[in-house]
Amino acid sequence: MRLADFTTVRLGGPARAFARAETEDELIDAVRSADAAGHPVLILGGGSNLVVADEGFDGTVIQVATRGVTRGASASANPGELTAAAGEEWDGVVARTVAEGLAGLECLSGIPGLTGATPMQNVGAYGQEVSDTITRVRVWDRVAAEVLELPAASCGFGYRTSRFRGSERFVVLSVTFTLAAQARSAPIRYAELAATLGVAPGDRVDGAEARAAVIELRQRKGMVIDPADPDTRSAGSFFLNPVLDPATLAAVEAAARTRCGPDTRVPRFDAGNGQVKVPAAWLIERAGFTRGYNPGDGARISSKHTLALVNAGSASTAALLSLAREIRDGVHAAFGVTLTPEPILVNATL
Ligand SMILES: Cc1cc2nc3c(=O)[nH]c(=O)nc-3n(C[C@H](O)[C@H](O)[C@H](O)COP(=O)(O)OP(=O)(O)OC[C@H]3O[C@@H](n4cnc5c(N)ncnc54)[C@H](O)[C@@H]3O)c2cc1C
Q1: Is 242:275 a contact under the CB 8 Å cutoff?
Q2: What is the mean pLDDT of the chain?
Q3: pTM
C-alpha cells in the first residue's frame, strides 16, 4: 500500500504497517500497540499537509477515521460550543456550523483534511485561525499513557504552529470550539475577502455568504481539492510566510528596490512584537519564479498560485523537494530570507 494513495499531493512510498481507527478506543489501542512494539507511528488525517518520502515510512501509519459532532453536551454548556471528533472532515464541520447559525469558522471554509489536524499548525486562512475559537483539545498523551483535556491556553498556538506541531507526544482525539451563536459572520478581517464581499474590513456579513466567497476565492487559487483541477494536486502552500524583524525587513526592502525598482514596496502584515509577516508568494515571484514554472521532472509550480507546488502526474517526492529547494535557494539569493516548508516532511528533509 503506497502512502501516495492517502496524500493530496499523491506522493509517498509504502508504510511498514497500516491501521485504520474508526473509534477512539481503536485509535488509542493502535497507538499503544505500536508504542509498545517500539514502532515509529505516523498519525494520518486527510494527508493534505504531508510530503512523504518515495522510500515511504518504516513504521505504523494509523489513519484517523473517528466520527461524531456534538453541540454543547451539558445543559450548562455555552450554546455555541461544538465538539468534533478528530476524524471528522473539516469542511463538513465548517459547513454544519454555518448552517446551524454559528459564527467563527466560516473563513476557514474549503480547507482540506480532518478536524484533528487543525490544532497541529493552528490552521488559518482569510483572517481566521482555529485558535480564535478552540477552547480545548482532548488528546491521548503517549508519554503519560492517559487521556487529557488541554485548555486552549496550554496549546501554544501561534502563526501556523502549536505545541503539537513537531511533537509526536499527543494524538488529538477531539477538538472543542466555542462559536458565536449568530447567523452573521465574525468580523471580516482579510482585505481581499472584504473587497470580494463588497464590505469594509471589520464588517459582518451573512455566514453563508462569507463561506461562499471564501470557497470561490480559494477555487480561483487552486486551493480547494478538485480532481478535475490538476493544480489542486498539492499539499497546499508549500512555504510559510516568513516573519521578519525590522532589520531583516529593511534588508529585504533594499534588495527589493535594487531588484524590482526604487518605488517597490514590500507587502507586509503585522505579526506582533514589532515583527511583520511578508507573503512568501511575493518573494518567490520577485525572485523570478512564475506561476506554472516547470523544471520538467514532474513537479511544477501551480498555474494559479506561486506558493503551491504541484505533482503534475508523474512527479516523485524527490522531484517535488528538488523544486522546493530551487525556490528556497532562489529566494535566499535574492532577498537573504530562508523560506521554511509548511507541510510535514516524513522521512525527508529540504
Ligand atoms: C489545497 C490545499 C489547501 C490548503 N489550505 C490551507 C489553508 O488555507 N490554511 C491552512 O492552515 N492549511 C491549509 N492546507 C494544509 C492542510 O489542509 C491543513 O494543515 C490540514 O489541517 C491538514 O489536515 P489533514 O487531516 O490532511 O492532516 P495530515 O496531512 O494527514 O497530517 C498533518 C500532520 O498532522 C498530524 N496529525 C493529523 N491528525 C492528527 C491527530 N488526530 N492527532 C495528532 N496528529 C495528527 C500528522 O501526523 C501530520 O504530522 C491546505 C492544504 C491543501 C492541500
Answers
A1: no
A2: 96
A3: 0.96
